[in-house]
TrEMBL record:
It holds the Pfam family Amidohydro_3. This is N-acyl-D-amino-acid deacylase. It comes from Streptomyces agglomeratus. Residues 51-518 form the Amidohydrolase domain. SUPFAM superfamilies: Composite domain of metallo-dependent hydrolases (SSF51338), Metallo-dependent hydrolases (SSF51556). PANTHER family: COLLAPSIN RESPONSE MEDIATOR PROTEIN, HYDRANTOINASE/DIHYDROPYRIMIDINASE FAMILY MEMBER. GO terms for molecular function: hydrolase activity, acting on carbon-nitrogen (but not peptide) bonds, in cyclic amides; hydrolase activity, acting on carbon-nitrogen (but not peptide) bonds, in linear amides. InterPro entries: Amidohydro_3, D-aminoacylase_insert_dom_sf, Metal-dep_hydrolase_composite, Metal_Hydrolase, Metallo-dep_Hydrolases_sf. One of its GO terms (cellular component) is cytosol. CDD domains: D-aminoacylase (cd01297).
Length: 536
């Protein structure tokens, strides 16, 4: 063997009871598992690692990641590697960087600079791809810290084919969108994402989305929507996605499946009942969540959808115009903008977590209400100025979640883990650095919301099954040696809202293809990650 992990507690990803064993790795795969009490000789190798109370699990799969540029810009990528993440799913929320032409690339870079950086003029990443296949090839050519799968982003596809107009797509535009989705799937994407509270993807009606989902289904992929409301219309929005995908014959994976805002306090059981009924009727559904109550997005996402028509420059023009800006304010504060999930915005729940302009750094870590009070002005005046001065690049934490909902949803039979981790900003959400150890330490060990074995299954085999990965997600002979060694007694997220970039504790070793990415708690220089492409 290349490596033998001696006398380790194996939590194999099935959800079944753990057991003690020696695990031998060879040529990037799990070659032998010899359980305690088995007869025959123990495996030997060129190197032996004595577990000393550690548990061995499959590598964690982040079903909702925003590392699309971070993987290229930051080869270290300890934010995810140190958590035990060995695979991330990119292209989320309907907005990413492939497929594009030159116009679309410029527009999408501007639109999601708050998520990923990479604004026009930023030269830290060479955008030398245009198709999904070229993007995945770029990841492989450069070498990345962890593995990556990709979802075709429906909003980017609509931007490419139909621009930023709030209208139904023409037959020719819909044909072009279907072609782009098909090409992305053929080039290795595992499914399609949407951001149905983000422009321009939210301009698509159900008929358009159904046609695109039929294309995805034809390739055995899944649809991953950030649906139309997590607030006032949450249950109806979930039901819409269930109905739409069943009509399309497409598997459904619900992104960051939360029930937020005051209107949804204690309503997780209503969501789970809706999903259980569909599952019992034969629907193919899964979901992911992060184990925190606040959400995280961009400040511009809070605006009503009509304010985004025409693209980022048109949005800025509306914000600069007093009459249009007053109309935006009225929709946000009185009506409840669709960008804020149909709920009138509460400025004391909107905390600025990052800005693109360093001159605005004094806003970071404060709510809009706090900054406005300091300036002696109305909160909308502060928000409007920030949107304009930061070129729509500001990110926010939105403190609108409920702990009882978080716990109820993570117990569900189709639940998986997803960080939704935005790595940009001076004070990002701690979920970017802490999601997976927070599940293991806080929710499994400390609170007992899940057993440790169940929790590991949620983070490994369940997402691997959704992604249709035949040789990942379990500690099993013949499977890839994407593995995590952690201490069940001490594993914990180091990241907090006050110090969000702190790395976790209790995860000393992480391997990808049998190579140490984290060794003795330190990041190695190994770039073992590769693109993981649809194979079915």
């Amino acid at each position: 063997m290349d490596l033998v992990i001696r006398d380790v507690r194996v939590i194999d990803g099935t959800g079944g009871a753990s057991y003690r064993a020696d695990v031998g790795l060879h040529s990037g795969r799990i070659a032998e598992i010899r359980r305690e009490g088995d007869g025959g000789p123990r495996p030997t190798g060129r190197r032996t690692l004595h577990a000393h109370g550690l548990a061995l699990s499959p590598g964690f799969i982040d079903m909702h990641a925003h590392s699309d540029l971070a993987l290229l810009r930051d080869p270290d990528h300890s934010a995810k590697a140190a958590q035990g993440v060995t695979l991330e799913v990119l292209g989320q929320d309907g907005l990413s960087y492939a497929p594009v032409d030159d116009r679309t690339l410029t527009e999408v870079r501007r639109a999601i600079t708050g998520w990923n950086g990479g604004a026009p003029g930023d030269t830290t990443v060479d955008f030398d791809w245009r198709t999904v296949g070229e993007y995945l090839d770029r990841l492989d050519r450069q070498g990345i810290a962890v593995n990556a799968a990709y979802l075709v982003p429906q909003g980017t596809v609509r931007m490419y084919a139909a621009g930023w107009d709030d209208r139904p797509a023409t037959p020719a535009e819909l044909t072009r969108m279907k072609q782009l989705v098909a090409e992305g799937m053929e080039q290795g994407a595992v499914g399609m994402s949407s951001g149905l509270t983000y422009t321009p993807g939210m301009y698509a009606d159900d008929a358009e989305l159904t046609e695109l989902c039929r294309v995805v289904a034809g390739y055995g992929g899944y649809y991953c929507p950030h649906h139309r409301s997590y607030g006032a219309g949450a249950l109806a929005a979930y039901e819409e996605m269930v109905t739409l995908t069943r009509n399309a014959g497409c598997a459904l994976h619900l992104a960051h499946a939360t029930m937020n805002f005051g209107v949804n306090r204690g309503k997780a059981p209503d969501l789970l009942a809706l999903l259980d009924k569909a599952l019992d009727d034969g629907a193919d559904i899964s979901l992911d969540t992060y184990p925190y109550t606040p959400g995280c997005t961009t400040l511009v996402a809070m605006l009503p959808s009509w304010a985004g028509e025409g693209g980022p420059e048109a949005t800025l023009a509306r914000l600069r115009d007093d009459e249009s800006a007053e109309r935006i304010r009225h929709h946000m504060e009185v009506v409840g903008a669709d960008g804020c999930h149909g709920v009138p915005i509460e400025w004391d729940t909107i905390e600025i977590s990052g800005v693109g302009d360093p001159g605005l750094a004094d806003c970071v870590g404060r709510t809009i209400a706090e900054s406005a009070a300091q300036r002696g002005e109305a909160p909308w005046a502060t928000a409007r100025r920030l949107l304009i001065d930061d070129g729509l690049g500001s990110t926010i934490l939105q403190h609108v979640g409920h702990e009882e909902n978080v716990r109820a949803i993570m117990r569900h039979r189709v639940h998986t883990g997803g960080s939704d981790g935005i790595l940009q900003g001076d004070k990002p959400h701690p979920r970017a650095y802490g999601t997976f150890p927070h599940y293991l330490g806080h929710y499994a060990r400390d609170l007992g919301v899940l057993s440790l074995e169940e929790c590991v299954a949620h983070l490994t085999s369940r997402p691997a099954a959704r992604l249709r990965l035949p040789d990942r997600g379990l500690v099993r002979e013949g499977y890839r040696a994407d593995l995590v060694l952690f201490d069940p007694g001490t594993v914990a997220a180091g990241s907090t809202f006050e110090a969000p970039r702190t790395l976790p504790v209790g995860i000393p070793h992480v391997l990808i293809d049998g190579r140490f990415v984290i060794e003795d708690g330190r990041r190695t220089d190994v770039l073992a990650g590769r693109s993981v492409r649809r194979t079915a």
